[in-house]
Amino acid sequence: MSDRSYVEWVAPIARTLAQDNRALLEFARAQPLEFWDRASVAEGWRNRDILAHVGGGNDQLLQIVLRATISRKPLGPETFGIDTDDANARGVEERRAWPIDRVIAEIEERQEETQYLFSQLSDTDRDVRGGSPMTLGDFLRLVQEERHDREHLQQLRASST
After folding, report:
1. How many Cα neighbours within 13 Å face the side chain of 127?
2. d(CA 159, CA 48)
3. Could you give the CA distance from residue 152 to residue 158 in angstroms, rounded to a whole number?
4. Could you give phi then psi for residue 46, rounded to 5 degrees?
5. Which residues contact 86 (CB under 8 A, 6 or more apart)?
6. Chain segment 97-110, per-residue pLDDT in tens
7. Structural contact between residues 53 and 92, judged by C-beta atoms closer than 8 angstroms
8. What are the pLDDT digits (tens) for 5-20?
9. Helices of type H across the chain
10. Of 148 and 81, which is predicted with more confidence?
């Protein structure tokens, strides 16, 4: 991942997401191929499905919001009305048969894009709403608190013991 500079309020968020992503990818690369076909701790999913979920759009809403902020284009109400369960299911199904290395590469590319977008934000972007029900600063704090990649890394680690 490239070294980037961020405005002060974005730096801790970008750093947290990048660290969690790196840890997830390091773990994923270290697993034998047979690990991915084992049942996971997430009911009804194999370990492969968890990774496919992360690859299948974990950062899509975040990237949509960041791109809109940077380009100064307001978000439409449909942006936050996405059926995330349906989108997640489609993303997992699409990637289920992919080689693990391909899923890992996609996760890396998305994180690189997210970090690039973070580096494009300015101090004035913190309070931008742009059609969102909350400011960008509030939205990014929620994303940081969620720590999606870390949550799924914990599930994968629990499945490896």
Report:
1. 2
2. 11
3. 10
4. -90, 170
5. none
6. 899 999 999 999 99
7. yes
8. 999 999 999 999 999 9
9. 11-30, 47-55, 60-71, 84-95, 100-119, 136-146, 148-159
10. 148
